[in-house]
């Protein structure tokens, strides 16, 4: 990949991630994204343009507001970094194409879901439904003329069934304490997006990373066993890995099994 395009894509990914951070914090009032200016949630002072440079400003300010010194959420640079990494992965896989655009928009809805769930422990249904519509558009755009829907049915059908069914079972068994209802539709969207067997990879990564994160919080005494941890962010990260590297991970795992 040309160095110039790498730098350009990383810059675009960081800038778009900065925009997605704004969407995450204002998803309950999307109109404010257009008519409002970014401001510190603590002192409510408007943020200067030079303090809005993706990733760079956060580092220069050491994660604090220039005006009042209040701590800036680490979610901002995290979203920007995730967005930049995904931008590179999308370009590497699809180049400049309609498929790349649709996949990028799908992942954008997932990143918004990740951020909002991390903050509010809630999955926004409207964002997920937009994601589902984009996933359907993606499969319509990606379907080649020599591939029938019947041939695609097992991959999409099993992906949707597992993606929707697993969190639904956990919601019913735990009566909403083990997993939230919003994760059911998020799982359905992701299952339809990554398909089968990648959906299994997504859930394995999500459960393992979620468990490790929960254990780390317990060790740091920031959570106790009764406190809930948002599952959506880990499912989103797991699905991104599964979409781009699912087959590779499955082949690697099966290869280990064959060696044994």
Write a concise keyword list for the protein shown above:
single chain; 260 residues; mainly alpha; 10 helices
Helix and strand topology:
Blueprint: H1 3-26, H2 31-35, H3 56-60, H4 75-94, H5 98-120, H6 125-142, H7 149-174, H8 182-194, H9 198-219, H10 232-259
* Average residue pLDDT: 85
Largest sheet: none
Cα-atom Rg, whole angstroms? 19 Å
N-to-C span = 37 Å
SSE topology string? HHHHHHHHHH
How many discrete domains? 2
Strand content: under 5%
| Proportion in helices | over 70%
Report the uncertain regions.
none
Going by helix content, strand content and strand pairing, the class is: mainly alpha
Give the overall form: globular
Please report the number of helical segments: 10
Number of E-state strands: 0
How would you explain this protein's 3D organization?
Helix content is about 70%, strand content about 0%. The protein has about 260 residues and is mainly α. The chain folds into two domains: about 1-95, no CATH class; about 125-260, no CATH class. The mean pLDDT is about 85.
Compact overview of the structure:
With 260 residues, the chain is mainly α. It contains ten helices and no strands.
